[in-house]
Amino acid sequence: MYLSDEQKREVILIATVGCDQETAAKYVNCSVEQIGEEMLRDARFGADVRRAEAACELGHMRCVQQVTRQEGPWRASVWWLERRFPERYGRRDAGTIGRRDLVRFLGAVAGGLAPAIRCEEDRRRVLDALSEFAESLIDPLSYVGGWDESVEGDSAGDAREDA
Fold first, then answer.
1. Which of these, 31, 41, 93, 153, has the minimum number of CB atoms within 10 Å of its CB?
2. Dist CA 114 CA 120 (whole Å)
3. pLDDT along the chain (163 residues), means of 10
4. Whole-structure pTM over 0.90, yes or no?
5. 9-28 burial, b for 16+ CB within 10 Å, e for fewer?
């Protein structure tokens, strides 16, 4: 199902104020997957959503930076950044592994496994699966293989939230 022009406008507006795609999906009565599919199908819409999400993040970063020059609601902005983008701004416990670390690890696993798998077809299948999973960690909406709840998110938040 394609999103209507009105639904697309509303998704972008919702992203502009800092809500995630799950909230936008609920508001426009579709699924997060449909928003992701529409972002892939309609490159302009995808770019507009990503730009709206980045603009909101940038606004909060500006607020945090300005605190050195004047008093302002910087604590609220830090709180928002920690919760909206836990992978980048959230507090981490010692030993916590984030998505970026996991993607690097999957690359190392793939590099180590490839020479050990003699059958070219099996090697390609395993490497493709690892690559697809690693890509899903970078762009959670791209993962079509299904989520294993035990590795879906890190301790700071839900992996799908950064989409």
1. 93
2. 9
3. 94 95 95 93 96 92 73 76 80 73 81 87 88 72 44 38 39
4. no
5. ebbbebbbebbbbeebbeeb
